[in-house]
Structure formats: structure tokens, C-alpha cells
Write a structure and sequence with these properties.
Largest sheet: none
Distance between the termini: 13 Å
Structural class: mainly alpha
Order of helices and strands: HHHHH
Strand content: under 5%
Number of strands: 0
Length: 140
């Protein structure tokens, strides 16, 4: 969708997904850097987990038939499963009081689910990439 992307043309499910994902992107480092076990860490962590699950589940309803796909699901949709499994495993680890596995799991989920997915989504030629790089910033 080169050079024709605009915020007004986003579907409601994409807007929901984008809001959840950006909020998770912002809250992730806060949760990771707060004192472990503190009330703030738990509160921000629960919010982050909720945002990540919401973003992952909303991605199921975002399909793209232009790219190589299987019923509209493209390779980035692999991150949907990876994110849900990662969050679940990290929560299971903390329930077992395995803090090391919990921290590693949450960090990996943040890096893959937020940073990795965000970088992929912002590539030129992808809808969000065109929206940001060309339409908004006038680049590319």
C-alpha cells in the first residue's frame, strides 16, 4: 500500500491492536526495571501481561492476503503463538517462584513480541511502515 496509508483508513481491529501494542511497548521496560516483587512491579506487570495478551489475540483478526500467507495469516502471526506461550510460561515460572525463568521469559517476550514485531511492522512496504515513514514523516 505504498504512499496511500493513513490513520483514517485503519480498521477498528488494527487500531485496537496498535493501541495495545504501543502501550505494551511503553510499559515493558518500566516493569522490567522496577524493583522485583514490589507492588509497582506487579501492577505494571499485570497491566503489561494484559496488554500483550490483548495485542496477541487481536492480531488473529488482522489478516493480509497480499503477502505470502495461509488463509490470510502471514509469517508475523507466528509471534501471536510465541507471545501467548511466552507470557504463559513466564507466569507459570513466577507461580513456581522461579524468578530467573520468569525474568528471562518476560524479557524474551518483550524483545520478540514488542521489539521484533514492531520492527517487522515498521518495515517499508508494510502498511504501518508506509504510514510512519512516508505519510507521517515524509521519508522513504
Amino acid at each position: 500500500m505504498p504512499h496511500s496509508a493513513s490513520l483514517a483508513s485503519l480498521s477498528p481491529v488494527v487500531v485496537v491492536h496498535l493501541v495495545l501494542a504501543v502501550a505494551a511497548l511503553v510499559l515493558g521496560p518500566i516493569a522490567l526495571n522496577l524493583r522485583k516483587g514490589s507492588r509497582g512491579h506487579r501492577a505494571i506487570g499485570y497491566a503489561w501481561v494484559t496488554l500483550m495478551i490483548g495485542a496477541a489475540l487481536s492480531s488473529v483478526f488482522i489478516r493480509d492476503f497480499r503477502l505470502p500467507n495461509l488463509f490470510g495469516y502471514t509469517p508475523i502471526h507466528i509471534l501471536t503463538v510465541v507471545t501467548l506461550v511466552g507470557v504463559g510460561a513466564a507466569l507459570f515460572a513466577i507461580a513456581r517462584r522461579d524468578i530467573v525463568s520468569h525474568r528471562k521469559g518476560m524479557l524474551r517476550t518483550y524483545l520478540g513480541g514488542c521489539i521484533g514485531a514492531g520492527a517487522f511492522a515498521l518495515m517499508p512496504g508494510r502498511y504501518l511502515g508506509d504510514l510512519v515513514w512516508h505519510h507521517t514523516l515524509g521519508l522513504v
